[in-house]
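Section 5: illustrative case.
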């Protein structure tokens, strides 16, 4: 039986729109966006270093931290006696060795003539 209804309209097919839609679909499934840096941190992590800080700034802050630790251990060592005092001075020696390494790194990055 023949019906007297109009044919459905022809879909408008713009090749550019079709290409954009297919690219979006493929990118969504094949190239997912990387998760933010928050996923790198562990659940118990309280502190983090901001990405993109230059090496010289990192080393300068390391130097300040080592100087503070050195001062605290030095003050503590003079209040201790016996083997505990030796342990405190050993920690201070490790801090001083770390400062020497840090200073060498700073000098290699920014040599001063």
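Designed sequence:
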């Amino acid at each position: 039986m023949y019906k007297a209804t109009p044919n459905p309209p022809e879909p408008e097919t713009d090749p550019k729109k079709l290409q954009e839609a297919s690219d979006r679909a493929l990118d969504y499934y094949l190239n997912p966006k990387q998760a933010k840096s928050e996923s790198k941190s562990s659940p118990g992590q309280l502190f983090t270093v901001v990405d993109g800080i230059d090496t010289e700034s990192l080393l300068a802050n390391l130097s300040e931290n080592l100087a503070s630790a050195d001062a605290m251990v030095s003050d503590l060592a003079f209040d201790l006696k016996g083997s505990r005092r030796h342990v405190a001075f050993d920690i201070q020696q490790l801090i001083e060795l770390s400062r020497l390494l840090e200073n060498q790194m700073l000098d290699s990055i920014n040599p001063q003539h």
